[in-house]
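Run log // design_07
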């Protein structure tokens, strides 16, 4: 089931990076924090509500593309108008298929 969220990322004023989450995705998945940010500004950028992981705070996951055309899956939350990336990795095959459908229809 796809749950499209009712959030407006335009209300966000930046990103929430600290020492632990800035380098975590690079160490685990070879995704830099700059690549994460790029995906939020390129189109299409598709956001879904992550109901399974929205326990203590509302979480989202997205499918986006970097400036170098790297397709990323990004899990994030919003805290005080800042986007906080929880995890970022390359899209799996199923996610790439979903992303391509959105790309065709945009």
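design_07 sequence
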């Amino acid at each position: 089931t796809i749950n499209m969220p009712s959030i407006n990322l335009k209300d966000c004023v930046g990103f929430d990076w600290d020492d632990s989450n800035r380098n975590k995705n690079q160490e685990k998945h070879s995704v830099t924090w700059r690549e994460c940010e790029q995906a939020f500004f390129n189109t299409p950028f598709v956001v879904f509500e992550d109901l399974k992981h929205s326990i203590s705070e509302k979480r989202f996951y997205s499918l986006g593309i970097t400036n170098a055309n790297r397709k990323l899956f990004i899990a994030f939350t919003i805290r005080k108008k800042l986007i906080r990336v929880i995890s970022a990795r390359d899209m799996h095959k199923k996610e790439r298929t979903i992303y391509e459908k959105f790309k065709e229809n945009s």
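The helical segments are 19-29, 33-41, 93-105.
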